[in-house]
Amino acid sequence: MSNAAKVTRRPLIIASIMLATFMVAIEATIVATAMPRIVGELGGFTYYSWVFSAFLLAQSTTTVIYGKMSDVFGRKPVLVGGTALFLVGSVLCGFAWSMGSLILFRLLQGLGAGAITPVTMTVIGDLYKLEERGRAQGMMASVWATSAVIGPLAGGIIVDHLSWAWIFWLNLPFGVLTILGFVLFLRESIQPRQVRIDYTGAGLFSVAIVSLLVILTETDGNGWVLGGLALLFLVAGWLFLWQERRAPEPIISLELWGRRLVATSNIATLLAGMALIGLTTILPVYVQGVLGRSPITAGFTLSMLVFGWPLAVMLSQRLYRAFGVRRTLRVGSLLFPVGATFLLFLTPQTHPVVAGVGAFIMGFGMGLISLTTIAVVQDSVEWSMRGSATASIIFARNLGSTIGATALGAILNIGIAHFGSGALAAGVHDVLNQPEGLAQLASDPSVRDVFDKALHWTFLGVVAMAVLTFVTIWLIPIAAKSGAPRKLEPSEAVPH
């Protein structure tokens, strides 16, 4: 294909990528806004966090695999196949009849979403020269900012006036247009290349992580069952490490992850992912159940997080020039726990704006953390390892989100049992398992008090993860006079 033809199609391909990005971006706020209503109709509040964990688990375990598949089979078939799988999962989520079925279909959704983020990032790298990517980066950041506003509004309107199923079915028109755009406009010449995909490693990793998630979720489970799951986690984890040492194309390069800069960046990103997912899953519940506000208000409170992130991305290059990379990263790491601390001061009488301010500060800090860690990791390795280094950061963030959603959900359930003293705890779950449960909970002082105290335990967990993120980032070995890193692909620079 001639360069002229490539440039002519470029706006249409970018439009398709923006649609795909919007579809994934809006998923975060719209589902979080509607989940209290969904769990009220389906029941099973104990498994609330699994709706998020299942999606993130599937997405994180397939990200590296899809990236390698795009090198073997081409970008277009992987993107089209992943988007189609995401749409199938979305349709089935709308027909879910129980929390178990919803979790299963969210897992299917995540399997499709795992293809969208890394491969769209690769396509942009294929289309644009390094010096041309700044404008594309700004456009992608604007997609995330727009979704931060539209997602909560759409989620609130849908749960108030339509069936909650439409929050998933809303993906259909965007997904269909995305597939048509890739099919019609994305052209590529595939160079045959032998790449061995580490399916065994991905399978062992999934078994280990699922075992860990079940242990964290089943806080009241049988001791023998939990012991068996712990043994399964240890065995699968050991086999995974053994497999990665011998695999020609490992899902995780242990040599790469062992480098100090990469290791500290990935650990910081994993901890940050744990803190952020806690905010995403818990804050809408607090605003509705304790503050007694509407789903729309709860969604807009959360949207401040997603709005702060791309704003930091758009300002990052100016901050690098003014203060340097190291200072910018450390300021971002400081903003992260500062924003999280706002959560500790929330009371039933607090205005939602306080929660929104804390979410915005955390989002802005995370924007600087995410963008800068990716940049310094990429610039620390040779060109042939840059894709793996980038994938390691995305992988770590998704893994942190997966573990964080489950761990903080378990803390919430433990808190309800602790402060509810048996019968009252059962009463809290009974209220939450009703369609209008959060509204009823906010009007009952005794039940609301139990829920408020339990949620503050999870807020303490978020703050602890944010503080650990801050500490870990100061251990990243960045030279004091680091210059501004290269421009990143838009998909690298915004939340996934």
UniProtKB/TrEMBL annotation:
Keyword Transmembrane helix in record: yes
Taxonomy, superkingdom: Bacteria
Keyword Glycoprotein: no
Subcellular location: Endomembrane system
Alphabetized InterPro entries for the sequence: MFS (IPR011701), MFS_dom (IPR020846), MFS_trans_sf (IPR036259)
Ranges where the Major facilitator superfamily (MFS) profile domain occurs: 13-481
Spans traversing the lipid bilayer: 12-35, 47-66, 78-97, 103-128, 140-159, 165-185, 197-217, 223-241, 261-286, 298-316, 328-347, 353-377, 398-419, 454-476
The name this protein goes by in its record: EmrB/QacA subfamily drug resistance transporter
Species whose genome carries this gene: Inquilinus ginsengisoli
Lineage per the UniProt record: Bacteria, Pseudomonadati, Pseudomonadota, Alphaproteobacteria, Rhodospirillales
